[in-house]
């Protein structure tokens, strides 16, 4: 990994500009139409706003202050806090515009062009024509936004919605009795979550209200990172409109959505899990403290399926005779806007039995051979002749599951059969944490219908789940994901307790997706690289990558989603925890004995240790720190804005330090308090903090209080920060432990095999071509996938390996049929020893495992071997178009 010398804080740090301390979005109503021909989503979003609980204005506005608005929108007290705003918000906005070097909000576009060349491309600047008539004493609503074309921003006339007029005044709303619009919205926002259905209906009605009489009253201005809205003459958030509609279109190359083709060569679009999150999908408040609910209507071509984070499986309805279907989704639990996830494409639901009509298609396309695809000039979006699963029969879509509250609809077909197919696995029904409900959970989060307080949710070990994939991967997705998913869900329930979300969809995303998986509320994206490469008949063997990755993403439901990081620089809070829990949950899913579990943990720990130490040796120190803002972590400016350190740095995208060092910190803590005690503590922690955002200290402090022995041993908060979170490099404990792991039983087994292979390789040397006679008959031990990874890594340390031994290696372990982690090491070995016979394996990997192949390109180029460089160029040209943008940039730099 080559350090990028020209680190530029203006481009490496992601700005979060929304002024969430002044005003908060409490609910979004989105109305989106997906146009595949133009690669555009045309959309409107209605924001329902509430003035913030106030800035703790200190002398000298612009200084950094404490932690924003607390843990969520629900904690805001909309009442009497006007005074506390003072005039802080105007000053802060001005200061931020100066310091960021962004165009002044009231500036003239042309004038500063040269000066801001680096940051502001003029394409990106947009304003309503009356923007200049507003001025700095007017209050500005700042939304995070980029790559969107905004056509209109308007205030809505809620008084025209007759259903709203019947709303009972709530006590707090009367503060605003001077302004009927504000009073109505406040009543709506304040409705208790028990009435969420009525509430959503009203939000929906309001979102369609006409613009306010003085329709042109809202003026907007867009710069590179934000959309700013003002109402002329309105100087405080209290007087700002509470319901605002923004009409806009996404841009085809916008960073939040990826327009691409799936493995069947059919068009699709999905939220890309980009570092800029959803701000190129809809203007929003990105800071995690701005938690809100949403509902969305998505119009898409009738043959497409629309998957989204939403609490119920949507049932599409026809949109007149437009050949579009309408899908409605919603959430009742307030979450950061970054967790909103959408995928629209021609995917099919994976069922226990694949329909024969599709099966023949599967057989023909099993290899998904990319080289056979029409390439270049992909603008035509030609549709492949694959039978459609949806449009023709919407029965593929399942109506609300019987277990979901309030969905009184009859279910279509025998849905429950596949939703709960796995309960036939009798072993799954043993664990029952019903006892935990008796401790009467008192939720500390904002008001939402919480599963932690529902008896029926606690007893639900496996939540309703579906798997979607392109046709050519249906079979692999069935053998791997569909089979493992219920086991992993039940195991997660056994380890962590109630599932925070009522349902789950899993989608096998296009090959260009840049990571192995991504978790969002109600939906997980999985890379095709985790699907098993082996034969259908090989049982559980070869499923460990798939299983542990599913467990990792499921663990995010608790750590990352229902408990989120308040400061995004503390990525370890979600990734370290999920990495730690993936082992625990996967061991549970496999029903391993205690000893087997320990052995597997030790081997995994050693593999991760090797990876971490390798990464730390090859990366810049400032990127190795888990809490880069240290004691300033979680702090925001008076307005609520901040920047996320290194978030846009492409080098960081490919680093794993947050996963690995975070995981080791948790292993370390587990070693101090005891394995089972640590898991019990996780459950306790989840009970206390679900529905909230946390900082490192929330977890560590509660741990230190729960286990007071730790502090007696000198393990203080300060010591943990110093050793693990605030410094680069490797903590001492880790050095010591790794020596122990490297002598674990499973590792010793591997070492014994390595010796055999080295001896074999040496026996070929100097023996000319006569190896046939001489080659000794060796009995090789069967190894697990993790052991094979270890074996290949150790062999990679050898400077020479004979061609014959490489050939035998490939044959003995059938390496081309192993999981992607094993194949990755195999490819490295092939490249290192220029084993040309297996270049096909390398090409296959680079084309089909794009989430993992980035550095393999570097290895192909660095050897200066013409044949290898040709392989790299050929593969890049094959997949360039579909590659993830940041991966593509990194690879092109290496190859071209
Ligand atoms: Zn709760």
TrEMBL record:
Say where the protein is mainly found: nucleus
InterPro entries assigned: Aminopeptidase_N-like_N_sf, AOPep, ARM-type_fold, M1_LTA-4_hydro/amino_C_sf, Peptidase_M1_C, Peptidase_M1_dom, Peptidase_M4/M1_CTD_sf
Task: Give residue ranges for domain Peptidase M1 leukotriene A4 hydrolase/aminopeptidase C-terminal.
Answer: 745-895
Comp. bias regions, Polar residues:
402-411
First and last residue of the signal peptide: none
Location comes to: Nucleus, Nucleolus
Q: Which UniProt keywords apply?
A: Aminopeptidase, Hydrolase, Metal-binding, Metalloprotease, Nucleus, Protease, Zinc
| Pfam families in the cross-refs | Leuk-A4-hydro_C (PF09127), Peptidase_M1 (PF01433)
A biological process (GO) of this protein is: proteolysis
Residue ranges of the region described as Disordered: 58-79, 390-411
Cofactor(s) recorded for this entry are: Zn(2+)
Give residue spans, biased composition: Low complexity: 390-401
Spell out the molecular function terms from Gene Ontology.
metalloaminopeptidase activity; zinc ion binding
Q: Which GO terms describe its cellular component?
A: nucleolus
User: What function does the entry list?
Assistant: Aminopeptidase which catalyzes the hydrolysis of amino acid residues from the N-terminus of peptide or protein substrates.
Tell me which family the UniProt entry assigns to this protein: Belongs to the peptidase M1 family.
UniProt name for this protein: Aminopeptidase O
Lineage in the entry? Eukaryota, Metazoa, Chordata, Craniata, Vertebrata
